[in-house]
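Before relying on records like the one below, remember that each one covers exactly one chain. Contacts with other chains, cofactors or solvent are not represented anywhere in the record.
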Amino acid sequence: MQFTQIPPDYSSLGGGARYAFEADETADRDFRIAEAGTDRLLGIKRFRNTAAAVFDIAPYLRDRFRFEPGGGPTGFANADGRCVAATVATDGATAAVRTFLRGTAEAGAPALRTSQPHARLLGHDECDEITLVTTAPCTAAVTVRSGGTVSRTDFADSGTGVRLFRLDAADFPGAETIAVAFEGIGRIEYRIVERPAEARRVAWIGRAGSIEHYTFPVVKAEEVRVAKRRIYGDEGYRTVRCESERLLTLQSAYETPAAAEALAELLEAPQAWIVGTDGAYGEADILSDRAAFRRHGTLCCLEIAIRPTRKLRDR
């Protein structure tokens, strides 16, 4: 028996993770799906009296991801939970270890994993996160321009595979532009800007299987919805329970169609967060189910309705 098809390394699970096998004779076969490294059993695929078949292991892997966004100092950061490495084995054959990512983007390494433009804006107190896939130890060169002064700082990462790099603009006071270049992989450039006081920063899991960020400069509407449970007695009505939630309607800047389309991924994101003024990430629920990101001859802005996932309860 031999495997005739296995997914490319660093594939996205959105399109499935299909394996195929062929054998000279029909037989009962159990395929053991395990987490690479720990050998933790994730599932078993069983075939009865079969000589060839195709099967998808993606359903066994999707609940193994764990995205916990956060800020941090500039440099490489822990990428645990952002990918799943798995093996598939049966009597007489073991497929090569494959690492899988969340999302739908095509596999590739080395590569930057992002849908957002490589030219970005960043507030002077904001942090951005870059996801990349490396095949060798990597160096990030951070070049900062401020007036006529240019400085460069190098950050080294000895690991390979799915890696994270965080850029905290606060680490470079007075910067006007910051460029982060990963040797042989790609480059992202930031223009440091002053954000409006009402601006809201949002993060979400995009199609590339990475956490994307965008700061909406305009809060078009903000409202509070309250649900009360009342009883009526001798003294009249009395509120015995009160829950409230805050809804925001955010409006983006006018973006190019490509940038607006990348931003529209927020509507279908499996997880999203609102970044607080203190840098904390609060889980969010995206209420919008449609957004126009392309109109002939014009730049577009997107409106997104969003709310925290948890209601506030005062009793």
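The mean pLDDT is 92.
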